[in-house]
Design a protein that fits this description.
The complex is a heterodimer.
Chain A lengths: L16 H22 L1 H11 L6 E6 L8 H6 L12 H4 L10 E6 L5 E4 H5 L4 E9 L4 E11 H8 L7 E6 L19 E5 H4 L5 E6 L2 E2 L9 E3 L12 E7 L6 H5 L23 E4 L6 E2 L7 H4 L13
Parallel strand pairs in A: 1-4, 2-11, 5-12
Antiparallel strand pairs in A: 2-3, 4-5, 5-8, 6-7, 6-11, 8-9, 8-10, 12-13
Helix pairs in contact in A: 1-2
Chain B lengths: L2 H20 L7 H27 L11 H23 L4 H10 L1 H18 L3 H7 L2 H6 L2 H14 L6 H19 L1
The chains are: A alpha+beta, B mainly alpha.
Chain lengths: 315, 183
């Protein structure tokens, strides 16, 4: 069949891309409403699908003899400024994160570069459960059973070149969907980075889930970093870009306030923050604070990475 | 509106916090919410105290000045609650940690200073003392202006990234102070 061609169509008549997208959104919204009205139970089913259980998880890879924080607390008490600057707003705006057709761009000093679909990136990486402490720079902490795989496994697949000294990550930048990004609260997109040896450390993982389920959007769906010995802001969420670089990257909170947030941001009770003392923390669910452990309790595994460094200076 | 209605209204935030805590409905970090809401209500009552005299210029609202002492005392009450939550639940009365906070963290220093300025206002509010102090009391009560400025500064100093909320409060205070200068 020949293609229809209309030479009389002027550029003004073409629907603007944003309008076109809004129409699609509207259609999606209308469809969802119809479906949920007609089939209330089916709508519940759809909702459940986003929290669907993940298959074939290898358990017991890293365990922890501490009480796990309830899923409800982990999923409703988050910092994710892209979805709003309050603690519970990211959960309330969760459905705004556009999860379908997620792509990750692999760039810089890798042998393998280019766009990857989420599926292509995850392929061949069996999922493990890792129960880690999670310590926020604000002075609260949780214990979370993450589901993911070591970052080093992905990196060895992508093959960093001689020029790779740092691995840099970026969160999705999409102000049309992410309400927080319509304001200049932070210099978007959110960016974080690790030294190559930190990125290759066996404790460093990319997570796709927690509590045997897919990550909720507010916890960084569909793919996030988890570095358990660093303050939470290093564990970047909703990753769309992975780059290997020679230079130490400019990271978001460090850029915002270099005297408050260091590039390394290792959990360190000896280095107090201008806003918060870091020698104690409130474990979510407990009333009073408990002592904070050096490297968040992972000193034995990671302290050697920093053995010749002045940690008061490189905080 | 009688003053006891004002009293009941002033207690509502506290009752709300108690009820929600009892029901376990304050979310993952209840202490943080107690701290934040007691601070918010202390500041809101302080701004309302300062708003009552401009409002009373309006013929319809002439009566509101009768509430001023009560609203001012609620401001102090929530400030005291705020300070207590910080001292007991945030720092477990560890004076070493608290001294470090005051020395090192300007927002704590400023917050404590604001509380110290509010203290004589609350202490001189019982009617008997008011009568004995007479006009010197008015001088003492001018402390409310530096106290309000320090509270706003306390708010700004602890903001991480989203400046809208403290800015809005600063604008309200600026309007209330400007009204007094222009009048």
């Amino acid at each position: 069949m020949p293609l229809r061609w209309n030479p009389d169509l002027t550029p003004e008549e073409v629907t603007a891309e944003t309008l076109f997208r809004q129409r699609r959104l509207f259609m999606k919204g209308a469809l969802a409403t119809t479906v949920s009205t007609l089939l209330a139970s089916s709508a519940n089913h759809l909702l459940a699908a986003s929290h669907a259980a993940l298959p074939r998880i290898q358990k017991g890879v890293v365990t922890l003899d501490e009480n796990q924080t309830p899923f409800k607390d982990v999923s409703t008490y988050t910092n994710f400024y892209e979805l709003g600057s309050g603690k519970s707003t990211p959960a309330a705006n969760a459905e705004r994160l556009p999860l379908d057709t997620w792509q990750i761009s692999v760039e810089g000093a890798f042998q393998q570069t280019g766009p990857f679909t989420l599926q292509q990136l995850l392929q061949g990486h069996p999922l493990q459960e890792r129960i880690y402490r999670f310590r926020c720079v604000e002075g609260w902490s949780m214990v979370i059973p993450w589901i993911g795989f070591p970052l080093r496994d992905l990196l060895s697949r992508l093959q960093p070149t001689q020029a790779a000294r740092y691995i840099v990550f970026e969160t999705l930048y999409d102000p049309a969907h992410l309400p927080g990004q319509t304001e200049k609260t932070l210099p978007w997109p959110y960016r974080e980075g690790l030294r190559l040896d930190e990125a290759m450390h066996p404790l460093t993982i990319l997570a796709v889930g927690m509590y045997d389920r897919h990550l909720p959007p507010q916890n960084g769906a569909p793919l996030r970093l988890v570095v358990p010995w660093k303050y939470g802001f290093k564990s970047i969420k909703s990753i769309v870009r992975i780059r290997a670089s020679y230079e130490q990257p400019q990271t978001t909170w460090n850029q915002m306030a270099p005297n408050e947030y260091g590039f390394y941001a290792n959990v360190n009770p000896e280095v107090s923050h201008p806003r918060w003392p870091q020698n104690k923390e409130r474990r979510i669910g407990e009333l009073l604070r408990r002592p904070t452990l050096p490297f968040n309790g992972y000193a034995e595994q990671v302290a050697h990475l920093y053995k010749d460094m002045d940690l008061q200076k490189f905080f | 509106m009688p003053v006891f209605v004002c009293f009941l209204l002033g207690l509502t935030p506290l009752l709300w916090l108690l009820l929600y805590s009892w029901q376990g409905m304050l979310g993952a970090n209840p202490v943080e919410l107690w701290l934040r809401l007691s601070g918010d209500w202390g500041l809101w009552c302080l701004l309302l105290t300062l708003a009552l005299s401009p409002l009373s210029r309006w013929r319809m609202l002439q009566g509101v000045l009768r509430w001023r002492r009560m609203v001012g005392l609620f401001s102090f009450f929530y400030a005291l609650l705020h300070l207590t939550v910080y001292l007991v639940l945030e720092r477990a009365l560890s004076w070493e940690d608290i001294a470090q906070d005051i020395g090192k963290r300007p927002y704590i220093t400023v917050g404590i200073l604001a509380f110290v300025l509010l203290l004589p206002l609350a202490l001189t509010s019982p009617r008997r003392i008011m009568l004995r102090l007479g006009s010197t009391r008015i001088g003492w009560h001018r402390l409310v202006y530096p106290a309000a400025l320090l509270v706003i500064l306390h708010f700004f100093l602890q903001t991480r990234a989203d400046w809208h909320v403290p800015l809005l409060h600063a604008v309200v205070l600026a309007v209330l102070l400007a009204w007094r200068l222009v009048r």
